[in-house]
Specification:
The protein is an all-alpha fold. Helices cover about 80% and strands about 0% of the residues.
């Protein structure tokens, strides 16, 4: 730093190799150069910096708002697609379960009808229970 400060005036054109690629020294040289400007040049420089950062801020804000809107729209579209897919899966699953349940009920009713016929032709309850896998209570309800 001592060398830097003592030789600052000789750095007006170029930063010595010793200080290249060191952001702290580059910033210090730049600041020294700006402070060497006349008052009018400094005012012009600071106005241009303000305009740059104002524009940067406006663009960053617009980008952030657009990104957030895009994300929100994407989330809504994703929810809608998810609901539609979920509804379709639910309908398909409900149909499959309904068919299975219907088959079970149909099989049970067929067993009961067969048991009734078997009872009517005189087959004993024990044989009907064994062959059709029905309980004694189920057979008793048909007599």
């Amino acid at each position: 730093w001592f060398y830097f400060i003592n030789n600052l005036e000789s750095f007006d054109v170029q930063i010595p190799q010793l200080f290249k690629n060191d952001i702290v020294f580059e910033d210090a040289v730049h600041t020294a150069q700006v402070l060497a400007y006349s008052k009018a040049e400094q005012a012009e420089y600071f106005d241009s910096q303000k305009a740059y950062w104002d524009a940067y801020s406006v663009m960053t804000t617009a980008l952030n708002e657009a990104t957030e809107k895009g994300l929100a729209k994407g989330r809504e579209e994703g929810k809608a697609e998810g609901k539609a897919e979920g509804l379709q899966e639910g309908i398909e699953k409900g149909k499959a379960e309904g068919l299975q349940e219907g088959e079970k009920i149909g099989e049970y009713k067929a067993k009961l009808a067969s048991a009734k016929i078997m009872l009517d032709v005189g087959i004993d309850k024990a044989t009907i229970m064994a062959k059709l896998r029905l309980s004694e209570e189920e057979i008793r309800g048909m007599e």
